[in-house]
Design a protein that fits this description.
282 residues, Immunoglobulin-like, disordered C terminus, Serine Threonine Protein Phosphatase 5, Tetratricopeptide repeat, 8 helices, four-stranded antiparallel sheet
């Protein structure tokens, strides 16, 4: 039996069918620019790794993960870290690859599992216990996570320094000895930091004005060096330099002359010659 539909309904049904087909069809994978850039960096890193330049290859792998964070890149990072003799970092990278990339090729996963087993046997495991949450844990100054940690810390054999720090609390730092294949527990205790001492207050300023007498500085005591000395005696002037001496001399001389004149007037009128000159008297 043939079902005849009105001509006006056919275009509407066709449009609906196209819409449903587009909604149910899976989206086509589109390779973004970031993914293409990451693949280019991975190829460069692989070429460097094959030439034995592990450090340069590691930088390329890390740049690729920063551009396009695919968990499969952790396998390449682990291989480079192992080549650089960084077993703890290599173990962490391979473990992340196994945890975050379950769909990776079976061959790569098997190789990663073998690497993890070998590295674990050569390292020591430390379980960090800290009652305070949100503390930054470090091993030898390198960040190891924030408490509570998701798992143990792997360390190479030897002495290591484990520390926990949190703002406003006193940090806890401990030295730990690690041996290959050993397991240990480190308990880090953080305590609230003591409050800073309040600054001392300055001495209060007096409000009353001092009396005028207090403003006058007392006179310094008079000592032997500062006592007033008696005035020095004035030197005696010789008699020949005093005016009254010559006045007296003059008076005596005048008296003598008068006496001579008076005594000679009775005997003559000649004026005797003197060294003082000739002077007549009436």
């Amino acid at each position: 039996m043939t079902l005849l539909l009105p001509a006006s309904i056919v275009p509407a049904m066709f449009a609906l069918a196209v819409t449903l087909a587009q909604a149910t069809s899976p989206p086509r994978p589109v390779e973004t620019g970031a993914k293409a850039q990451a693949q280019s960096l991975l190829r460069e890193g692989t070429a460097l790794f094959d030439r034995g330049e592990a450090a340069a290859a590691l930088r390329k792998f890390e740049q690729a993960y920063a551009v396009f964070p695919s968990p499969k890149i952790w396998f390449d990072v682990g291989a480079a870290q192992r080549a650089l003799d960084r077993p703890a970092e290599a173990l962490q990278a391979f473990q992340r690859f196994l945890d975050e990339a379950p769909q990776a090729p079976a061959e790569s996963r098997a190789e990663a599992k073998q690497a993890v087993a070998t590295l674990m046997s050569a390292l020591g495991r430390l379980t960090i216990v800290c009652p305070v949450s949100g503390a930054d844990v470090s091993i030898d100054g390198k960040p190891a996570g924030v408490t509570p940690l998701a798992g143990p810390i792997w360390a190479t054999p030897g002495q290591h320094q484990i520390a926990a720090r949190r703002e406003g609390m006193t940090p806890d730092v401990q030295d730990v000895a690690v041996t290959a294949g050993s397991e240990g527990t480190v308990t880090l205790v953080l305590r609230a930091a003591a409050p800073a001492a309040a600054p001392s207050l300055a001495a209060p300023v007096p409000t009353e004005r001092p009396s005028p007498a207090a403003l006058v500085s007392p006179a310094p005591p008079v000592g032997p060096s500062t006592a007033a000395s008696p005035p020095a005696a004035r030197p005696q002037r010789p008699l020949t330099r005093r005016w009254w001496f010559w006045t007296a001399v003059g008076a005596v001389a005048a008296a003598g002359v008068v006496g001579v004149v008076l005594s000679t007037r009775g005997h003559g009128t000649d004026v005797p010659g003197t060294t003082l000159g000739s002077q007549g008297f009436p």
